[in-house]
Structure of DUF7147 domain-containing protein:
Amino acid sequence: MIQKFIELGEGYADIYELIDLGTRMPERIQHAIAFYSEKEGKPVASLSLVMKPAHNDKFQPIYICREGIPNPHEKPNQRFDMYKEMVEQAGKEVAEFTIKPSNLFPETELFYQHLIGILRMNKFIAPLS
């Protein structure tokens, strides 16, 4: 199984696209994950949806909005509440991880490889087969 992060964006508005994806395909959501970090002195959250592969495909998309909203544990916000509500309506819970911020990696792709390693190690996604 090949897993790949698909970044919807870094800004505040991209979270609505992620919520719409989850609302339209709740049966495909395997996991909902909030990654917390501190970027430039601010506590931020990256929200993601690990989707089940489509039609017995060997590709598993992981949609993410990278570091676009405040960490809800530090600063409650409506965007996180909307994400959490969508996740709960899909019958899932939000898993939470504290990670290093993306700007510590020389390339965004390395950051995503790091996250894939974390998800595999915690058995949220399957290893390559």
Observations:
- The mean pLDDT is 94.
- The chain has one domain: 2-122.
